[in-house]
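Exercise 7. Predict the joint structure of the components listed below.
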Amino acid sequence: MFKDVDLVLVGHGSVLPYNEELMETFRRKIERRRLFRSVRIAFLQRSKPSLEEVLEELAATSPGRKVLVLPVFLAKGTHTLKDIPEILESYGENLKIIYGEPLGADDRIVDVLIDRAKATLMAAADGET
Amino acid sequence: MFKDVDLVLVGHGSVLPYNEELMETFRRKIERRRLFRSVRIAFLQRSKPSLEEVLEELAATSPGRKVLVLPVFLAKGTHTLKDIPEILESYGENLKIIYGEPLGADDRIVDVLIDRAKATLMAAADGET
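Solution:
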């Protein structure tokens, strides 16, 4: 469907492994849908590869191609409005960068929150009996 | 369904208003389902009220009650494994605190990511024509 687009999912990054694991799971699940030319992950802080590293590699191997950079953040904030755009500016000459929006207040995320709440309370109730 | 439980959604907090707006939207949408005694939001950093403030208020007005603290974070990390549990420890005597898990790699979040990607690419294509 978007076979001319390389997708880069950008996560926050962490000293712990969980953010990387989550991002890799998202990457794999999106890759399986075969919508994009490629699906990569990149991070702002601590975790590797950095967003700069991924964009440099794409600029070197696929100059001039369309790259969709999607922030894997819940809300807009300093990271999505300032940090990521500042990095993207440096690569505009060699790649056609398109920048997306964070997840936002989608009802499907509300459903996930309610499922997490229910599961936690069910487990706590089991522990009491 | 869980009418004996006060739900506290804990967000990261931000100097910008978007994290608060997102959390308030989640709060309102969950409140509408009428599953919990009450639904509140609280923050770790910068935004108000803080998690401490919300737990103090609950301990004062509803001592001994069940409080489900749900981290509104994508992945486990320092905030969910260290910062929040350290705060919760101080309120264990006055409230029955139950602590939940972050959102994680749910397929519904993958669907939201793909929708964000498609919408961004459609808008970019419209801009080109």
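Discussion. Helices of chain A lie at 18-31, 51-61, 78-89, 107-128.
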